[in-house]
Inverse folding.
């Protein structure tokens, strides 16, 4: 497959360069924090906007690509991973960020999440988890907590929520991290680690929905969560590190990763990383590199009689 | 002993699935072609891998139409059937595709244990007036087949057929070596050759006729290719770089071919987790500026519909190949049908703007990807290539095609446009969004979305903007409408009836029209290669005939027009009737068209 030619950006990229219109999200929406975290990372790393593609599905988070002055595909519900894979195969030169909500990634698009993780193609996968469907007006999502009243389960959500972190670990994800929209330094550090990961970097982001679920995620207190810390991990948030528990966790320890992921208490940081998991995109590109080139002019000669 | 000369003839080899009927057919075909005969082959493939032997679903076989002229379809009736036992024969007779003088060679090997069943089928053959030549595999051959674990009977039958069709045994033996040589150990190969010679000898002793079709196809370089392989090679030649698909009959063989070949030409095959993912990944690649195709059949087409709508709205080109099979739902996976037309034209919710190309033969298959890429990239719309089980799997001898090695779509040569009866499109075509550059283009940054946007690509819900987007998208289709010229026509320019076909029915129609002409009937034929949109000239052409009818491998009756008839009626307001709306899973026969034409004329 052919890569397009790349022009170099003219000056340093600033946050302002990345802005488009004012996002059409509610006041206080956690999505603001998430896209700002990614923009801060793009500026810090000086990624070329022309070489960056944001891909999303449907939902509040689906609008994210519209608010980055980069390339972007706001695709259909549940399918951004499939689009992103096409870009990873066609254009390995691009910086690829996938934005998906909890409904998008874990419900309608669950199959693609399984196979995206398994194929381990290079992208940063951002799971915006506000634990409900917001854009369609407060329905139960796969991660809505049991008992929470929604418009589709007004008696209180019936089932226990799925746990996205254990799912990702169980699927054999090569990079599993968790962060939250209101801890900007940690968010940006997480983007950094995810971007540098050679493969499918699964980033779970707890995201506030002040409109439909204002009491979820007590962002003013840090007593209810801990940071996972390690030399090979992600730095705890500068502002909060001394206010809450910081746990030393080696991201190569899968067993411990599962324990933290399944615990009652919330942990932010790098749960697990394996830089050696085979990558489907690399395998496919290598097939071309290793194949003996054939003469296109003689394409029908094998069928001559 | 007589050698009867024929210009064209058709025969079948019927066996249980898994015993190599198609392999034997391929070898014989190789010999025919090497000698310079024209062939058209229709394999009969069960939808299951290995149904129980000696059962009706186990029917697997090959129909070969052999001619001293270029044949465009599988023809009318079978003149000779060789069946390995009475059950596959009985099952196949059910399709009623034999001519009244059909000769049946029936292997009586199983008759000892199934005397009643054999008797019933033989009686049925007699009632139908078929002449049966019962035979039994000789003892020496039976022993070899036993040694080969039950295999090799097909090669024995190959010997019988080779004798009957007057093929030099040495030529066939060379083909056997060519086809099986790499797979078989020398001693096994030798046993197969003995089986072949024994079959040849058996026919010499038991069958008292031979059929000779002259060798006429020597003049230029010829290739033997099936529809799906031709499409696969066309995909490479059209400069497409990604094939993204999910296994589905009858599209999968394209994925198999390309999985082997594509990397050597710089392309990739992606086997997706499902049909939706398959098209999503193709769309992702095309957004990245790399031409991509997704291939499927009916059930997969239904699943892809949302993404097809998205690609119209987001203005990302995409090529979808639909190898149609019998529907609805799972239908008959290994039988042919043309019923997906409404689903591709009207499918996906909201307004529909897309282009639908159809392939009528293996030559169309090779150039359709070029045509599709040209239209998809010029218009940034979804473009379908409609094939079907018949076109996908049947194969044919053709003159070697001109290879194009297309890089840019503007390089498309005139002869390809002419083949699809369309003029070149205007150089610049207006898009909903002004910016359309692929990622990596500095200053071209843009976001695409399925939401309505203004020309700057910004999400916009105002009334005027949405109407404008519709106009621009539809204008793209109108460009094609205006560029379409008079479609391919057969027979007289004016007359009593015009018979319209699309896709795989073309061959039968062409032959039927020449049969009609021989009988002095004033009947014309039209074959549409671009099925949507339709050429503006259509109504003018229709006005020159008293009646307009369609032939389709799709259901229709007097209260419900078949898909093409429905479309033609809607687009022209002409009272187009479905003359043949046959959804039996079997191709339409030229003589059925002639017969129906006469019926319509008599009304």
């Amino acid at each position: 497959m052919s890569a397009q030619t790349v022009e170099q950006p003219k000056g340093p990229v600033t946050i302002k360069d990345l802005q488009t219109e004012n996002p059409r999200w509610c006041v206080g929406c956690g999505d603001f924090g998430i896209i700002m975290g990614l923009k801060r990372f793009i500026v810090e790393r000086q990624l070329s906007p022309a070489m960056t593609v944001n891909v999303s599905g449907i939902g509040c988070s689906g609008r994210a690509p519209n608010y980055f002055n980069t390339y972007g595909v706001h695709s259909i519900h549940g399918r951004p991973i499939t689009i992103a894979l096409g870009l990873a195969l066609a254009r390995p030169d691009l910086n690829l960020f996938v934005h998906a909500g909890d409904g998008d990634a874990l419900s309608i698009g669950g199959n693609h999440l399984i196979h995206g993780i398994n194929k381990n193609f290079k992208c940063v996968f951002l799971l915006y988890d506000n634990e409900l469907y917001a854009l369609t007006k407060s329905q139960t999502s796969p991660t809505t907590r049991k008992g929470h009243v929604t418009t589709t389960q007004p008696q209180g959500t019936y089932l226990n929520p799925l746990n996205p972190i254990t799912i990702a670990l169980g699927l054999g994800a090569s990079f599993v991290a968790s962060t939250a929209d209101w801890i900007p330094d940690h968010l940006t550090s997480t983007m950094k680690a995810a971007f540098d990961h050679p493969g499918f970097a699964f980033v779970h982001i707890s995201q506030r929905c002040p409109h439909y679920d204002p009491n979820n995620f007590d962002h003013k207190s840090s007593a209810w969560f801990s940071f996972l810390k390690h030399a090979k991990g992600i730095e705890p948030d500068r502002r909060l590190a001394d206010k809450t528990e910081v746990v030393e966790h080696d991201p190569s320890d899968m067993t411990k990763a599962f324990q933290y992921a399944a615990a009652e208490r919330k942990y932010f940081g790098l749960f697990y990383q394996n830089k050696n998991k085979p990558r489907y995109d690399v395998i496919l590109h290598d097939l071309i590199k290793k194949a003996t080139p054939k003469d296109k002019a003689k394409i029908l000669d094998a069928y001559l009689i | 002993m007589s050698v009867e000369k024929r210009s064209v003839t058709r025969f079948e080899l019927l066996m249980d699935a898994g015993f190599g009927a198609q392999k034997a057919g391929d070898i014989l075909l190789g010999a025919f072609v090497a000698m310079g005969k024209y062939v058209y082959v229709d394999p009969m493939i069960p939808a299951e891998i290995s149904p129980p032997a000696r059962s009706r679903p186990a029917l697997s076989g090959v129909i070969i139409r052999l001619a001293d002229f270029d044949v465009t379809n599988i023809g009318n009736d079978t003149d000779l059937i060789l069946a390995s036992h009475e059950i596959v024969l009985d099952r196949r007779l059910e399709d009623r595709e034999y001519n009244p003088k059909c000769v049946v060679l029936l292997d009586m090997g199983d008759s000892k244990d199934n005397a009643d069943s054999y008797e019933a089928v033989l009686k049925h053959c007699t009632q139908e007036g078929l002449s049966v030549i019962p035979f039994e595999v000789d003892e020496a051959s039976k022993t070899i087949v036993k040694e080969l674990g039950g295999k090799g009977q097909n090669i024995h039958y190959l010997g019988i057929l080779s004798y009957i069709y007057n093929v030099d045994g040495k030529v066939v033996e060379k083909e056997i070596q060519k086809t099986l040589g790499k797979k078989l150990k020398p001693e096994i190969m030798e046993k197969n050759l003995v089986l072949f010679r024994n079959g040849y000898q058996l026919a010499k002793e038991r069958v008292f006729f031979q059929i000779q079709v002259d060798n006429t196809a020597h003049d230029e370089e010829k290739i033997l290719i099936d529809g799906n392989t031709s499409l696969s090679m066309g995909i490479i030649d059209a400069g497409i770089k990604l094939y993204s698909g999910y296994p589905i009959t009858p599209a999968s063989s394209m994925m198999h071919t390309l999985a082997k070949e594509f990397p050597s030409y710089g392309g990739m095959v992606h086997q997706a987790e499902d049909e939706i993912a398959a098209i999503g990944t193709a769309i992702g690649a095309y957004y990245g500026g790399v031409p991509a195709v997704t291939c499927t059949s009916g059930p997969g087409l239904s699943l892809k519909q949302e993404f097809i709508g998205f690609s119209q709205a987001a203005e990302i080109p995409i090529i979808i190949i639909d190898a149609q099979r019998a529907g609805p739902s799972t239908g008959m996976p290994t039988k042919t049908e043309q019923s997906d037309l409404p689903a591709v034209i009207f499918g996906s919710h909201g307004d529909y703007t897309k282009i639908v190309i159809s392939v009528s033969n293996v030559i169309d298959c090779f150039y359709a990807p070029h045509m599709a890429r040209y239209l998809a990239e010029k218009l940034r719309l979804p473009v379908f290539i409609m094939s079907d089980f018949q076109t996908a799997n049947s194969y044919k001898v053709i003159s070697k095609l001109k290879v194009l090695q297309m890089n840019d779509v503007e390089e498309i040569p005139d002869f390809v446009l002419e083949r699809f009866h369309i003029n070149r499109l205007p150089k610049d075509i207006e898009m909903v969004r002004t910016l359309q550059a692929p990622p990596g283009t500095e200053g071209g940054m843009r976001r695409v979305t399925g939401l309505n946007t203004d020309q700057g690509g910004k999400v916009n819900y105002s009334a005027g903007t949405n109407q404008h987007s519709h106009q621009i998208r539809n204008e793209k289709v109108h460009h094609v409408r205006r560029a379409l010229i008079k479609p391919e026509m057969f027979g007289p320019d004016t007359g009593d009836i015009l018979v319209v076909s699309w896709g795989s029915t073309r061959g039968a129609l062409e032959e039927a029209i020449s049969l009609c002409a021989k009988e002095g009937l004033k009947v014309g034929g039209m074959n549409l290669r671009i099925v949507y949109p339709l050429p503006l000239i259509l109504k003018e052409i229709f006005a020159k005939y008293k009646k307009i009818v369609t032939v389709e491998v799709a259901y229709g009756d007097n209260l419900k027009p078949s898909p093409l008839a429905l479309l033609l009626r809607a687009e022209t307001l002409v009272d187009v009737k479905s003359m043949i709306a046959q959804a039996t899973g079997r191709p339409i026969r030229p003589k059925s068209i002639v017969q129906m034409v006469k019926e319509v004329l008599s009304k």
Remarks:
- The first helix of chain A runs from residue 15 to 18.
- The radius of gyration of chain A is 20 Å.
- Chain A has a mean pLDDT of 95.
